[in-house]
Design goal:
76 residues, mainly alpha, 79% helix, elongated
């Protein structure tokens, strides 16, 4: 029983750390998009291009050609 408790606590700690990292990463990408959209120095087209650059950077770093949205997230 003690091993099960240790394993459970370890798994919960790893999951919490992963969740924290994911939240930090998503916040970073959203902040980059927000800065692009709220820029006072860019035109509307310039803002669109800046957001596209953020997406292009993400895809390059994630090694993805296309982005997917899982069904459960689309409804929100």
């Amino acid at each position: 029983m003690a091993t099960s408790t240790v394993n459970s606590e370890f798994i919960e700690a790893v999951a919490a750390e992963m969740m924290s990292g994911i939240h930090a990463a998503v916040e970073c990408w959203m902040a980059k998009i927000e800065r692009a959209l709220e820029s006072k120095t860019l035109t509307t087209l310039g803002r669109l291009h800046a957001v596209q650059e953020v997406l292009t950077e993400y895809k390059r770093l994630a090694d993805k050609a296309e982005l997917e949205c899982h069904r459960s997230l689309r409804a929100h």
